[in-house]
Amino acid sequence: MGSREKMSAYVEKRDALDAAKADNNACRQRIRQLLDEDSFVELDSLVEARGLSFGFTREPVAGDGVVTGYGTIDGRLVYVAAQDPDVYGGSIGHMHAEKICKAVELACTAQVPFIGLYETGGARIEEGVVGLEGLGHLLASLEAASGEIPLIAAVFGPCAGGAAYVAALSDFVLMSEENSGLFMNGPMVISGIENKEIDPKVIGGAAVHSKETGLAALVASDNAAMIGELKMLLGYLPDSADGFIYPQDTDDDPNRTDAELDDIAADLDQGYDMRQVIRSVTDTGSFLELSPDFANGMICGMARLDGTTVAVIANGEQRLDKKMSEKAVQMIRLCERFRLPILTFTDAEGFVIGLEAEKGGLLMAGASLMRAMLNSSVPRIGLIVGKATGTAYLTMSSKSCGTDMVYAWPTAEIAITNADTAAHIIYRKEIAASEDPANARNEFVDRYAQEIASADVAAKLGHVDEVIKPSASRPRLISALNMLTFAE
Description:
By secondary structure, the protein is an alpha/beta fold. The chain folds into two domains: 3-234, 2-enoyl-CoA Hydratase, Chain A, domain 1 (Alpha-Beta Complex), CATH 3.90.226.10; 259-412 and 454-487, 2-enoyl-CoA Hydratase, Chain A, domain 1 (Alpha-Beta Complex). It contains 20 helices and 19 strands. Strands 10, 11, 12, 14, 16, 17, 18 and 19 form an eight-stranded mixed sheet that branches. The protein has a seven-stranded mixed sheet with strand order 1-2-3-4-5-7-9, sandwiched between helices. It has a two-stranded parallel sheet with strand order 6-8.
């Protein structure tokens, strides 16, 4: 075949492939919705399956059921892999997996995020050990990339077994209520074991992983909305583990104060919403809560302070439990990977009290949280809003456990135990001997709160850097963040 014939054959083949790509199938439609217009450059479009075959042979398809390449999102370079459910259910064969591996490795080389758009029937059975090793190589590639670049998984359909690991090994998992599913064992397997039909959504749908396991960081109503959330999330992430080079521009005044915070502090005993405090302090509209329905007594997310992305870890309930601790640990590890400063908001009396909690691993979870905080090397700023008692104080806000700067509202109480319990233990004889024990108890509680547990006492001892007016929290935190990040 001469050069002219070779060119003619290439053009004919490429036209056929381009025509196939022009089809508005789900896979390519998702890529177009995600990336900037005309920015996508495809890689390995001609790769076909190879390997073992047992019992039957599938017709090879160009691309082998996954589209990989690179493009931009709001001008930022990213690498993408999108599984094609129209090609053998998006099943993962050896070459399919190798294509994704290559995209992950190229993203590491370029030091830019990798985004996986997943929908797969699982590993390709007929490829046997070859396909299994391909999947193993993919999982190893993702683990090697973890901590180097952001790994984001958007789950568009069912993913089971090792294929679900591909998503679960990512830094962030996004799911839609529409038809996302992540399962260790597929619905058919579980239904067979349980001897009854079970809705796949009950096994591993978005509700399961947003409320019960915490695997899903963000959940959208449908696939289109999930892509929108993915783009929004990317705006909070640096390109690599080196962190952000420059903060984003913001129209929010760094010196803005909020008198409503003074009102919240004055009525703290009546109850309040910690999320409202977070939203007031951070740049307007910037607080993005992650896994909000999982262990929601621990508030974790990302926000911006004068354009700088920070992680937020805050107590939404007075007592921490095992799941709350585990949620915070995951957030701390994420911050370590991407050099995100941590901002903690503390109002906690300690850890939950009860037999089931103790037998359920509370001590180990609390110790893991403490270890994560102690090993954290990113800038940490603590704001004590209300109670900071015992190990909850040590974990969330103490200088001895790594918090660089600690601020407290006048309403803060810092002690080994709450004032009521402390007064009963220390002054029980005086209370019992009093003519009016109830009134005496109240007086001793107030005395302990003022002489031992007050924010002023902690500040005098140097454990709190400053007791601040609540309305001035934002400018004080921004100043501290600027100082700490400059020092790095």
